[in-house]
Task: inverse folding
């Protein structure tokens, strides 16, 4: 089910259990690529694991705690994007994403993130969107810069990845800053 349209070929679709097999295959194909940045990829090894993760994300969406979306191009899942850690009292949430390595550097992530940011500011009425990423992840650093997220700090030893504690970069985009860049 389409949640947000990105372009003629790409949409953002809510997680659904019938997508578990395609999700598992995509994750398996990209494990080595994602492992340096995402700490949960090695926990998803079976169809049951994929179904459980999807069910948990659906439950979180239904409880209005997060939004998990598949990036779908030409009816094929090629990644995921979403909103997490929603702090309603301050109208702030974090976004996260990952893509099939074969679809990176084609502008797809930029388009999908733009659509999600617009939705989060206009429909969800967030005041701030945060992006937290491994300090060594140059691609996410470039995305933060492209979308005018401001680096708010480095959180040391904040993320366990492959048995190592890594630093995270915390970047934020305020609604007022986003509105200004949309009018330029």
Result:
């Amino acid at each position: 089910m389409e949640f947000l349209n990105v372009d003629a070929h790409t949409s953002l679709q809510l997680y659904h259990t019938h997508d578990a097999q395609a999700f598992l295959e995509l994750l398996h194909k990209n494990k080595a690529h994602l492992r340096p940045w995402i700490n949960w990829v090695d926990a998803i090894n079976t169809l049951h694991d994929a179904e459980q993760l999807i069910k948990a994300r659906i439950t979180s969406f239904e409880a209005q705690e997060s939004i998990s979306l598949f990036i779908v191009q030409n009816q094929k899942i090629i990644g995921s994007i979403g909103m997490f850690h929603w702090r309603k009292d301050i109208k702030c949430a974090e976004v996260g994403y990952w893509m099939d390595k074969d679809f990176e550097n084609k502008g797809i992530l930029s388009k999908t993130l733009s659509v999600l940011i617009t939705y989060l500011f206009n429909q969800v009425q967030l005041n701030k969107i945060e992006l937290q990423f491994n300090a060594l992840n140059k691609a996410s650093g470039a995305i933060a810069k492209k979308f005018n997220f401001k680096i708010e700090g480095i959180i040391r030893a904040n993320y366990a990845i492959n048995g190592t504690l890594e630093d995270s970069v915390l970047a934020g985009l305020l609604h007022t800053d986003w509105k200004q860049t949309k009018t330029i």
Observations:
- Residues 59 and 65 are 9 Å apart (CA to CA).
